[in-house]
Design goal:
Length: about 270
């Protein structure tokens, strides 16, 4: 599932590609992907201009010139493509938005994901439960520690809880824990000051590195996009079961924790009792 680095990477690219562009038409191949009748959705978007693209957590919000928003959540398996034509037949995409100039934005893999047209107020209401952004300047080390102290769950489930921090999921929670040398099944509220500071620094370090490398998902946005998916080869533990740890050579271990995949090094990440 796309997380902060993937969605921020999409936002950066789409902001440059779509800012100030007019929507000339929409095609909806799956009615369940949107939140209103297809003809209403299509007619409401035709002629609208995208002012800018915002990200909140794992959501992208396309701000329209009529004050409404297109709210996108890719969920598991969702991805985007942009260009003169899609990398697959048009029927493989749930929604296609066409723009002046002839290019289109293709929304693929949205069997669980969605693209909803909403008022600004409704969009704010939908996201009111989200926690702070990882790079919010108000999320100081002290504020981070206070949030951790109020959690009763394991470290991985805390990091992936969107009410704790917005934008972190399965992949980067494991990568952050590895970088901080903390077991993902450690109790979140039992970290000492040194451990919580390591975790705080690792959140910023890993997410920055992943964003700059284009995230771990392998669907390039445009035909000339050479960056998207670049972090996949840099993952230290995620999806690396039985591979040697890059730090000590111990085979990476795989378990599940409250239904989530969990990858870690049993030697570098000890102590979760």
């Amino acid at each position: 599932m796309p997380e902060y680095p993937e969605m921020e990477h999409y936002r950066t690219q789409l902001s440059a590609l779509l800012g100030g562009r007019k929507i000339t038409g929409a095609v909806v191949n799956r009615a369940a992907t949107i939140n209103e009748p297809i003809d209403v959705f299509n007619s409401a978007l035709e002629g609208r201009t995208i002012l800018f693209v915002e990200r909140r957590g794992k959501y992208l919000l396309f701000h329209l010139d009529d004050g409404n928003r297109l709210v996108l959540h890719l969920m598991l398996g969702g991805w985007l493509a942009y260009g003169d034509e899609g990398p697959k037949p048009d029927s493989h995409f749930q929604v296609i938005l066409s723009f002046d100039g002839g290019q289109s934005l293709y929304f693929g893999g949205l069997r669980l994901g969605y693209l909803h047209r909403m008022t600004a107020k409704a969009a704010l209401e939908k996201m009111k439960e989200l926690g702070p952004e990882p790079f919010d300047p108000r999320l100081t080390l002290e504020a981070f520690r206070k949030r951790l102290a109020g959690r009763k769950g394991k470290l991985k489930t805390t990091l992936t809880d969107q009410k704790f921090l917005a934008g972190i999921g399965n992949c980067y929670s494991d990568e952050i824990c590895f970088d901080a040398k903390l077991h993902p099944a450690a109790a979140a509220n039992r970290l000492d000051d040194e451990e919580s500071e390591r975790l705080y620094r690792s959140v910023h370090k890993v997410l920055t590195e992943a964003k700059e490398a284009g995230g771990y998902m392998g669907h390039p946005l445009t035909a000339g996009d050479q960056l998207t998916g670049g972090f996949n080869e840099r993952c230290r533990v995620y999806d690396r079961v039985d591979e040697p740890c890059v730090e000590c050579g111990t085979p990476i271990k795989f378990e599940t924790l409250t239904g989530r995949k969990m990858f870690y090094c049993p030697h570098c990440q000890k102590g979760h009792e």
